[in-house]
Amino acid sequence: MNDSITSDVVIVEHMRKAFGDNEVLRDVSLRVGRGEVVAVIGSSGSGKSTMLRSIIGLERVDGGTVIFEGADLVRDGIYVPEKQQRRILRRMGMVFQHFNLFPHLSVKDNLITAPVTVAKKHKSEAAEKAKELLSKVGLLDKLDAMPSSLSGGQKQRVAIARTLMMEPRVLLFDEPTSALDPELTGEVLEVIRELAADRMTMVIVTHEMTFARDVADRVIFMDNGLIAAEGSPKEIFYDSQNARLDAFLKSFRDR
Amino acid sequence: MSRGIGYTLAIFFFTIVFSLPLGLLLTFFETSKNPVLCGATKFYVFIMRGTPLMLQLFFIYYGLPFLPVIGKYLAMDRFAAGCIGFILNYAAYFCEIFRGGLLSIDPGQYEAARVLGFSRAQTTAKIIIPQMIKVVLPPTSNETITLVKDTALITTIGITDLLHYSKSLVNSTQSVLPYAVAAVFYLIMTTGLTLLFNKLEKKFRF
Ligand SMILES: Nc1ncnc2c1ncn2[C@@H]1O[C@H](COP(=O)(O)OP(=O)(O)OP(=O)(O)O)[C@@H](O)[C@H]1O
Ligand SMILES: [Mg+2]
């Protein structure tokens, strides 16, 4: 619709957020283009989660602007009315570190509850789509399983499928593999790689440096509430000009 | 004696049917962001849980009619007074149980629901309450069984319940048997409820 003006799906300008005296986001500006995969790296406490959560409305920012597909979510720290917020946010998806599946619902019901309740889709239509997406993440045989019977890697793949049910225009991932045993990270990263190949627009906070290097079009290094460095994977991982980034990457290599 | 059983069952039934939803409502009041609503509910629960149920029954049936001006409109029959006393009292206990259930829910559940586009009401109905039920079933079962036995308190405001009849039968027949019959009846009720709750707990094991 606004593609003629800008192909950016998400525009963040001068976003600020504090918890009490703790200034967590000091001045963050960021653009995510359609089909782009942005990886966000940075040390613990640098504000990566807070940035994602602020984009998707889980945290209220103190200042700055967030524009999604040409529509304001918040401008200069002032939010649009709640109803409008929900309409905008419905087109974004988020995948959490701890999956946050609904434990009382089967895998199938986890997938169809939002389309049926929120988007007023027909149950049978949603169920068809659920099957399609579950086979995409390799879990069609778990259709009637309860979340408690799944491994961490399977839970996260179901969570990704659940998010995709709402046909998001951008997907935000907050450390999708950090809660998993090392041998289970691969199956989740593989699903994200496939989404990248399908040109899904994604912002991925991760500590998996190899994955970030391979899958991202652009890498953002956050440090102390600011975007301290930004560039192609090659620029960030091999030609860093930033002392803090060097130190951060070195701490990873030494592990 | 069967009339007595009728009163006992009726008090139990009315109390459960009205105090469970009222308790849930109080839980939402108590956890709301409105400080007046939250404070008033806390105070209510404090009074109801901190004073004897028998005193509350006396207050409602014998006490309220002596209030100046409005007192004469508050006189009611024994059974209505008993029901109101039990409902108000048990709602406070259920409120505390439900609050524990609500607080046990992972904040990530609200966040997942929100980013999927659920409204607050939809989140409460579809995501939160079903998970609460699992947590609150065991304490609710306990409280319900306590209620069966507590119903005997209505004797004290002159309602002719099961306990009342067994007591007068013991006096008139000079036999202890009616007390045993009453005990068996209470046991049937509590056992039945225990079985019912066990079934429910199995259903909510996810
Ligand atoms: N709800 C909150 N209330 C108070 N402080 C918070 C809250 N959430 C985050 N913070 C603080 O904000 C800072 C940034 O947190 P954030 O979670 O964004 O960092 P992060 O970069 O995601 O770190 P990690 O790699 O450990 O996940 C931290 O100092 C944290 O303690
Ligand atoms: Mg984080």
**SSE class of chain B:** mainly alpha
How many domains make up the coordinates of chain B?
A: 1
CA-atom Rg of chain B in angstroms: 20 Å
Main sheet of chain B, how many strands, which sense, barrel? none
The share of residues in extended strands of chain A comes to 25-35%
Strand order of the largest sheet of chain A: 7-8-9-3-10-11
Number of strands of chain A: 11
**What is the CATH class of chain B?**
Mainly Alpha
The end-to-end span of chain B amounts to: 44 Å
- Per CATH, the architecture of chain B is Orthogonal Bundle
| Pattern of helices and strands of chain B | HHHHHHHH
Spans of at least 5 consecutive residues with low confidence of chain A: none
- Beta-strand residue fraction of chain B: under 5%
Q: What assembly state would you assign to the polypeptide chains in this entry? A: heterodimer
Number of strands of chain B: 0
Inertia-based shape of chain A? globular
Present as ligands are: adenosine-5'-triphosphate, magnesium ion
What's the CATH topology label of chain B? MetI-like fold
How would you describe this protein?
The complex is a heterodimer of chains A (255) and B (206). Chain A is α/β, with parallel strands linked by helices and 255 residues long. Helix content of chain A is 36%, strand content 27%. Chain A has nine helices and eleven strands. Chain A has helices at residues 48-55, 82-89, 107-117, 123-136, 152-164, 182-197, 209-215, 233-237, 243-253, and strands at residues 8-19, 22-33, 37-42, 63-68, 71-75, 78-79, 92-95, 170-174, 202-205, 218-223, 226-231. A six-stranded mixed beta sheet of chain A has the order 7-8-9-3-10-11, with helices on both faces. In chain A, strand 4 and strand 5 form a beta hairpin. In chain A, helix 3 runs parallel beside helix 5 (152-164) and helix 4 (123-136) packs across helix 5. With 206 residues, chain B is mostly helical. Chain B has a single domain (2-203), classed as MetI-like fold (Orthogonal Bundle), CATH 1.10.3720.10. Chain B has eight helices and no strands. Chain B starts with a helix and ends with a helix. The A-B interface holds A 56-58, 86, 89-90, 92-94, 96, 98, 100-104, 113-114, 117-119, 146, 148, 162-163, 166 and B 106, 108-109, 111-112, 114-119, 122, 126-127, 130-131, 134, 204, 206. The complex binds adenosine-5'-triphosphate and magnesium ion (MG). Magnesium ion binds next to helix 1 of chain A. Residues 48-49, 174-175 of chain A line the site of magnesium ion (MG).
